[in-house]
Amino acid sequence: MATPLIVNVVELLRWPGTTKGVVLSIASADLEFGESRISDEPIDVNLHLEALSNGVTVNGTTSATWVGECRRCLAPMSDRMTVELSELYQQIPDDSEAYAINNDQINLLPMVRENLLLAIPLGPLCREDCPGFCPQCGKDLSQTACSCDNSVVDPRWAALETLKGSLKDPS
Ligand SMILES: [Zn+2]
Ligand SMILES: [Zn+2]
Question: Model's pTM, two decimal places?
Answer without folding.
Answer: 0.77
